[in-house]
Every structure is written in C-alpha cells, then in structure tokens.
Write a structure and sequence with these properties.
This protein is of the alpha+beta class. 17% of the residues lie in helices and 28% in strands. The strands form eight sheets. The protein has a six-stranded antiparallel sheet with strand order 12-21-14-19-18-17. Strands 10, 11, 23, 24 and 25 form a five-stranded mixed sheet that branches. The radius of gyration is 23 Å and the shape is globular. The model has no long low-confidence stretch (mean pLDDT 86).
Length: 525
C-alpha cells in the first residue's frame, strides 16, 4: 500500500517466456482516463471499492508487450506521488517510493550492464498486489487519508481470500495526527480486517507491517520537529513554540492529546507580535485572524471516546477520559515566524488538587511546507522528552508489526539515529523490531527504454526497513500458510538480535534487529 508501482520493471516480472508480470492486481485509487472500478468476489459475495482503476495481470501483460507500457496502461508510477517534487526530477526523490518499497520486499533479479546482481528482494518470487493510495489535499497540504489506507488493506485481503492465499500487507506510510495510544479508529479497523473472513479471530495467514516513521533530518533538526511532551500542573502552565517556515503556504495543524479523569486543559496562542488568543477552555472554539483575514482556529478540549474492537482485548488504561485539543494555522510569511503555545490546567474543572496533567502535542506531517515545534527560543537540540513517542500514529496498534530502522552500512551495524522512537502515549512498547534502513541500493522506477538498469543509492528511512519484515513474513507463509498473527509476531520479536548491550526493548530498535533465518527456523523447529 504505497505511491508509485513500476509494473514494467524487470524486477517484478517472471523468467517465463515473455517475462510476464508477477503483479496479481494493481488498484490505482486515483480516477483516470479509463474507469475500471475495482471489485473482488469472496465466497460468492462481490465487494465494490467505489473509485479508482483496477488493472489485472492480463491487462498489465498486454501493456508490457507495447513499446510504451506506461502509456498503454494509462498508469504512470510517478504521477499522484507523495513527495513535494515529482520522482526523477532534480529536486525530487530518485524514484517512486512504492517501487523502492516493493523492491525490498519482493524484488526479483535485476541487471546492471549485463551483470545480474544479488541479493534480490526478500521474497523474490512472491505474487504482488499493489494499491496506489490517493494523496489527500487539505488546502495546499498534501497528506494521507487513513480511510483510503484501510480500504487498500481490505482490498489486498479480499484478493488473497479469492486466491485462497495468505498475505502480508506492507504500509510504509504514516501520519502524526491521532491519539498515538493504539486505540485509534485506524487501529481498530486494521484489527477487524486482520481477524475477519477466512483468517478468523486468530488472523491466520494475515499480517500488516507498518513503518515506525522517520524523524526530521533538517539542520537544525528542531526546526521541523513534530512532537512535544509536557506536564501542566495547577497554576503552572507549559509553553512551547510553533515555528512557521518562510514561504510555507500550506495548512499546519497541531493535536494535543491527554488522559484526564479528573481535570482538563485550556490553551492560549500568542502571535509573533504579542497578540493573545485565549485561553480557549474545554468545549469552546475560536477563529484566528491575521491582519483582519481568517488564518486558522482553535478547538478547545473535547472528549475522544474509545471504542472496543471485537476479538481484541481492551488496553489496560481503557475507560480513561481521553481528550484532544486542535490548532490550525494557514498563513504565508516572508520570514520564519514563532508563535507561542501555552497549555494550562483549566480553572473550575473537576480535579484532585493539585492537578497534574501530562500531555503530548503532535504537529501533522507536512512534506510540502517547513514548520516545527520547539521547546526553546532560539531553537536548540531536540529535548530527550520530545524524542520519545515520536513514532507515527499508525505505528501504535497492537496487531500491527511495527518496524524501526538501523544502519547496515557499517560493520558492525549501528544506529541510524533518525528512526521514530516509542513507546506509544500509553507506554506500550512499539516499535516491535528493526531492519536496515540506511544507504539502501534500490532500483529506479521508469528507467529509459533500452538503458542499462540504473540504481538509486542512499535512500533512507523506516519506509525501507518495514519491507524487510514484510518479505520475511511472506517467506513464513510459504512454509506455514496458516500461522496465526500471534505466532508471526512472536517469531519476529523473539528471534531478533540485540545490538551490543541493548536491553530487552529499546525505543528505536524495538526487540532488536530482524533475523530472517531465525524467523524461519522458528517455524521449522
């Protein structure tokens, strides 16, 4: 589930005559010149997915026989991308994100100047189902609609069921908005999908792998930092800065989450010229105006109830009064601006005195516009308190296998340093495991016709660590197609290799470094 599938690349074709495709289905969720609405039939019931275009293996193979397969299929792996600039351009990534991810998980043989290179992807002969999700636009900000991700995972599971095959879904995508406590709507829907249909409540033959998320590598890093932690006590608030970068024209938003069975928080926003908006108390909302023009809003503390998932035990902290505060700014500035955010215990709330409320603030990811959260003025190094709980909101679910990244570019392997850190907001230990994610050598998408196949060097992130785990789980299903989700999770974590003197679990590497052979031995013993 990603952006950009280079279906024509030889790495995703078989060695049979004509080199047919290994792609069983390609659903582009974006509408295009042809409308072939995706649907699948499972146990006699037809499921319609409502939008986009579905390409079957037969249609892909027909396109592969043409001089320009991308034009023939009317699908371009560089269109509708997730980056600020188009892949393959001077300012953009060296290739499509989804093709890089697909190569790690399931790439086959690849040739450069006539020489076949090894190793290939982890599960180099696996069948592939690719769903290209739609970029969601909020104003000028390119983002991700989690409903599209859920539908994409459901589609993969339905295709697998129709083929009576096990499957693992790789999600190397993430957002920062949400509760980060394993109890979001996304987490519940993924659990329900995993434990439905032929898989049953034990989720036999089904897994979802999610990248933990990568930290900003800007210099200084704090200018684009996305997480802030604090503790407000009665009479003593917490203040931090919200940096809006020069020429940032995109929508910027912050969510502040906390559990408060006995007290609530209020928020005040101070503009760069000293104007104060607030305090905005629980249940209230205010618009923000700059030079007489609307430029944002604040929605005061509102309850965010938790909903149980059938077949999934509730979290140990279930039943607490979970609250969220939302801030939004959409302004264009010539120089960097610093807005101040002040979080305080709201007066008159039911509370045990003195009230003490821990909270977390997350800035929504925005690759198209530079902004960040900062504890200090002027910005300094990221505080250790803010490094924890910096994984994405999609990386907190108990049923997801969450993957951090380390660097395999050195001997011995070492920490990459930019892998999102756990635990989640309720101190559940995520990520589960780590895999290589630094200095990857991957195939470029849309290579020129007749050229020697170029490689892209230096791609980094947990996006490319996650498919190492997905490919390994695919190999597990080859020898144990009915393995339960619990068995898969145990095999991945219990065989992981510790780095040096690491304890049982670390915030960036989880239980340790993935050991693919150890995972397979777990099922062969």
């Amino acid at each position: 589930v990603d952006f950009g599938c280079d279906f024509a690349h030889p790495s995703f074709r078989t060695a049979a005559p004509g080199n047919p495709s290994r792609i069983a289905a390609l659903w582009d969720q974006n509408d295009g010149p042809t409308v072939l609405r995706p649907m699948v039939t499972v146990e006699g019931e037809t499921f319609h997915f409502g939008h986009g275009r579905l390409f079957t293996t037969k249609e892909i193979n027909t396109a592969l026989a043409s001089p320009d397969p991308y034009k023939a299929l009317t699908y371009d792996p560089h269109a509708n991308h997730c980056s600020a600039f188009e892949p393959g351009t001077d300012n953009g990534p060296k290739g499509a994100h989804g093709t890089f991810v697909m190569e790690v998980a399931a790439g086959g043989g690849r040739t450069v100047a006539g020489e076949v290179l090894r190793p290939c992807g982890v599960a180099s002969k696996a069948d592939i189902v690719f769903v290209q999700v739609r970029p969601a636009w909020y104003g000028d900000r390119r983002s991700l609609d989690l409903n599209d991700v859920v539908k994409a995972i459901a589609f993969v599971f339905h295709v697998a069921d129709s083929r009576n095959a096990p499957c693992v879904v790789n999600v190397s995508l993430n957002t920062m908005s949400g509760p980060h406590d394993g109890d979001s709507e996304f987490d519940h829907r993924i659990s329900m999908l995993l434990r439905s249909g032929k898989a049953g409540v034990e989720a036999r033959g089904r897994s979802v792998v999610v990248a933990a998320g990568s930290l900003p590598d800007s210099a200084p890093q704090s200018l684009q930092w996305q997480h802030m932690a604090g503790v407000a006590t009665e009479g003593v608030g917490v203040e931090f800065s919200w940096l809006i970068g020069r020429q940032d024209t995109t929508l910027n938003s912050i969510e502040i989450w906390y559990d408060a069975p006995q007290a609530w928080l209020q928020l005040t926003l101070v503009s760069p010229d000293g104007q104060r908006l607030g305090p905005i108390q629980p249940g209230s909302a205010e618009d923000i105006f700059c030079d007489g023009q609307w430029c944002g809003c604040i929605i005061g503390s509102c309850a965010a109830p938790e909903v149980p998932t059938p077949g999934v035990p509730p979290p140990a902290t279930s039943g607490v009064d979970r609250q969220c505060i939302y801030l939004e700014l959409e302004i264009e500035v010539e120089v960097m601006q610093m807005w101040r955010v002040i979080v305080e215990v709201a007066p008159g709330s039911p509370q045990a005195s003195p009230a003490r409320i821990a909270f977390d603030a997350w800035l929504e990811r925005d690759d198209d516009g530079p902004s960040g959260l900062c504890r200090y003025d002027p910005p300094q190094a990221v505080d250790s308190h803010d490094l924890a709980r910096s994984i994405g909101t999609m990386s907190c679910g108990a049923d997801a296998v969450v993957v951090g990244a380390y660097s395999a570019a050195f001997t011995p392997a070492g920490r990459w340093g930019l892998s999102g850190n756990g635990p989640d907001r309720r101190l559940v230990c995520k990520p589960d495991v780590s895999a290589p994610g630094h200095f990857m050598t991957l195939v470029r998408s849309r290579r020129g016709q007749g050229e020697a196949e170029p490689l892209a060097l230096g791609e980094c992130g947990t996006s490319f660590a996650a498919p190492f785990v997905s490919g390994t789980i695919a190999c597990v299903y080859q020898i144990a197609p009915n393995a339960t989700l619990a068995q898969v999770q145990a095999a991945v974590t219990e065989t992981a290799i510790r780095m040096g003197n690491d304890p049982t679990w670390t915030p960036d590497l989880g239980r340790g470094m993935l050991d693919p052979k150890g995972v397979l031995r777990y099922f062969l013993s």
